Amino acid sequence: MRTVTIEYQHRSEPAWAPSGTYTDLAHHLLTISVKGSLAAISASESAVRPQIDRKLTAARPISRTEIESGFVGSETKALWLDGIHARSDAKPDAKTLMGRALEFAIDPLGDQTYAFKAVRSKVPLVLSSGAASQVVGASPDDARLWLNRPKTWADFLTDTEILLDVAASVGATPPTVRFPALAQAVNDLATVSDGDAIAVVPPELLAEDTDQTLKERAAQWAYGAEFSVVPGAGPNLVATVTFEMTLLGDLSITPTLAGDKITLGFDWTTRPVTGAAGRPAFDALIAEYDWLKIYYGSGHTISGGKCFRSAYTDQWFPNWQFKNLANYNVTQEKPVILVGQTLGLSIGTPKAPGQHDDSLFGYCHDIFNTGWLASDDGSMELADFVHIDDATNLVTLIHAKGAGSSAVTREVSASKYEVVTGQAVKNLRHLERQSLTDTLDAGRHHLIADAVWHNGIRQPDRTGLIARVQALPIGYKKRVVILQPQLTETEHDECANGQASQRRTLKMKQLNTLLLAARLSANAVGSDLEVWGAA
User: Fold this and answer.
1) Can you tell me the distance from the alpha carbon of 340 to that of 342, in angstroms, rounded to the nearest whole number?
2) Each residue of 497-508: b (16+ CB within 10 Å) or e?
3) Per the count of CB atoms within 10 A, which of 5, 74, 77, 392 is most buried?
4) Could you give the angle at which helices 415-426 and 502-524 cross, rounded to 10 degrees?
């Protein structure tokens, strides 16, 4: 093994004194060790590592499979997880786990839509410390390893050579799957289809040592970019890109696989009058960083130059109910607001003589016609509706969302349920009597506060409803209902009985996983979860 070193100084102005009065001086060491056809680069400045990786031309990082085979072991001490699900208020984009043996602590339902980005685990390596097993940190997608700091320069060289020898000995054979409940990397785009959503998710936002200018740039695009997606053939898609309320145009995206690395081809297909100036900035950003996440209805996500697929469960969500919605518009969530009226006064009110309110809100008004019913629709809503059954003291929070199509042949779509399911989980706390009382009382003066009924008769305000909540007995029953008629009873049964295509069945598995996780959250607060589709 041959090793060369580079020593350098990094001078910078403190963020709190940018006028040039003070200068921070940091000394750094970069080492390059070569043995055979492999090289190991070690940098004391963590921020320089991704810069080196992006500038590599003649060499390539070793594969995710090789890192997993040689340097991911048992008794996992730390896991850094990256979410491959569409972004949701109810589920974090990423999370970190710490423990003694995390392979046994992974949530088989809640963590199925996370892939591990990095891990610290015990690996049977004898390094300079002499121990039979070492805790090794590994980031497979970055081809990066880290150990405890060696005591001497000789120990550093010894450990580096051992790591190079192990890397040279592992083959391309896929390793034993260490975390089968997590999403897995796949090296095939043949089954990737139905492009559904795009997000800019820079890992630099989470890194403390990221250059401040880059971090600000990352935040600007992460929170300012929006994409409206139209799926194409296979993994291809077209996205209408908007940046900070300015239309950049339509962008055709073509993913291709070379080895185990996915590259994204881009082509602007429209030339809007406004926004064209923002395209070069976007193009340069995407060319240099793998910040785009692309989500597919097939259950795949492309992220960081890799493709992942969720480990969806074969368990079926048991609490489906299919309602007769023949006289209602399944795509219309709320009623048309009548002239001179508020939304609250338009719910359940005929649109015209002989024409009933056929929205999903109208359906809720018609079905929950005994006991107390109130709408709380709005930006800080507790639910679209809250219902209290006077006979059983059952408190129900109802969340409604329109279907994407009214066609009787419409297919299952997990993405149509993600937002409304996230809202339902987020608002579970309002099933508690005090929280429900406080929230209803805080909204007394909102426009929607006039949407209150008792036994089908409209009430002047929420006074009677709040009193009823306060009078609930200890141990009252709780329920959450999600009304989303995207799924029909026919589609559900065909997926369950093996009559649907593999693609539709996979989408049903995605939906089952989403709802089973939400059901666990509901059960944790003593509530049932029901999902209502269309008969």
Assistant:
1) 7
2) eeebeebbbbbb
3) 77
4) 0
